[in-house]
Amino acid sequence: MGNGYLRFAALGDSTTVGLGDPVPGGGWRGWARILAESLRTSYDVSFCNVAVSGATAGIVRERQLDQALAHRPDLASLLVGVNDTLRSTWDPARLRTDLFATAAALTSGGATLMTVRWHDHGALLGLPRVLTRPMGERIDVVNAVYDDLHAAYGGLRLDLALMPEVLDRSCWSIDRFHPSELGHRALARAWAERLRAAGYDFPLPGLEPYGGCPPSWRRDVAWMVTEGAPWFGRRARDLGPWAVRRALAAAR
Q1: Which among 38, 64, 101, 217 is most buried, taking Cβ atoms within 10 Å?
Q2: Each residue of 159-182: pLDDT tens digit?
């Protein structure tokens, strides 16, 4: 695919925001920005990241989609759904409706979709089986929706469960839920490989740490105290009672 002007819009949740990949001066970088920087070595790239931490599929549709469409993207990444599985308001039908509506709008505007199949987050968190099993079942539902979405709208896709980096502790931040810089770089590299296979011509992003903040246990602990622990507490209050009721019902 010839070099030229390229518009890239990134939609989604905290993974696309870049949590786990801090940069000097504050803020986050993440896989989408790393990928955009690599694309810029060969293309005139206009990059728009509208992702928001904690976003559900509904939030992407209601609050991010219009901003992304205004960017008129050639590439549009849509990575969302995990937060939907962690809420007591879990609604598979609503998830499907929101994802399909978002994908339809992006592709009708001429964008090539970039979507994923999620790995089982719960299996990596060290949580009790009573919590991880229903989380895994919900992830299976999300992945089934993405399978149907890919069949309907095509584009590029990445199966995170097949990436060996998922099992590499160094690719995860302290909460084991968000990628570290190494994890974000692995994501950017995997997407770049798929883009190159689709005809885009640009160098692959590097896998070695560069330009971010070096690992710091003080920063990690501070983040867990101020952000990570409260987040897990909210999700436990939200998902925990439902998971326990479900486990008791299954035992009966």
Answers
A1: 64
A2: 999 999 988 988 988 777 789 999
